[in-house]
Amino acid sequence: MRGFGTALMHGSVSAIVAIISKQLVERHGGPRSWVFLPGLGLAIVLHSGFNHFFIAPTITTVLILVVLPVFFVAVFHFSESRTREWLGTGFDTDAELLEIINAGRASDSRIGAYLVELRERFPPATVVDMVCLLRLRLELSIRAKGILLARQAGFEVPADPDMEGRFAELKFLERSIGRTGLLAMSPLFHFSDRDLWQYHMIGKR
After folding, report:
1. What totals of helices (H) and strands (E) does the chain contain, helices first?
2. CA–CA gap between residue 17 and residue 35 (Å, rounded)
3. Where are the beta strands (DSSP E) in 89-138?
4. Residue 201 burial (CB count, 10 A)
5. Which of 11, 101, 166, 181 has the most crowded CB, counting CB atoms within 10 A?
6. Closest CA to 72 of 119, 154, 12, 148
7. What is the pLDDT along the chain (205 residues), one digit of tens a residue?
């Protein structure tokens, strides 16, 4: 149990150093030697506290297993929201974003800069699938919103015969990209999987 806790502690404090340093680099506009000191100092304090046996090893390990995953999930969601906020500037509607992608002007925008970062971390074929997935999700969103507006105005819109094919393509692209790629893409999505399912049901009726 002590060895298991030590392994978790080492990995966790290393991640904490990286997270704090990355936040300071972004806040101050570039890497500086001192930005690593706060995270390193906190890691040293946590490491020292772990090694001084203030708490029984079993309890310490349980606390690590409970507290640190919550901390890292919170950090991930905070980072995702910050990235979405940065990407969302100038893209107030799905239609505007789709127009930019279809016109080939994404490279001149913040979303283009983000896709360039993804291209450096994923194979070219995966990045192509990512762009296709983003375009398809936007098209589904716009289609569903149009149907809702038409029905609210009293117009009956026939079911879309291509809806099943579109969602089959959506699932294929998601499997091709993989969970890690989808997590990297999450700041680009302005709507959830629940919204997509609702769009699916709207298009079938």
Report:
1. 8, 0
2. 10
3. none
4. 11
5. 181
6. 12
7. 667 778 888 888 888 888 888 878 877 766 678 888 888 898 898 888 877 777 777 787 788 788 888 888 887 777 766 665 655 544 455 666 777 677 766 666 677 777 778 888 899 899 889 888 888 888 887 777 777 677 667 777 676 777 778 888 888 998 999 988 888 888 777 665 556 666 666 555 5
- CB 76, CB 49: distance < 8 Å: no
The residue type of 73 is: V
**Tokens standing for 106?**
């994404």
Yes or no: say if 174 and 132 are a contact pair by the CB < 8 Å rule.
Answer: no
Domain map (residue ranges) of the chain: 2-79, 94-204
d(CA 193, CA 191): 7
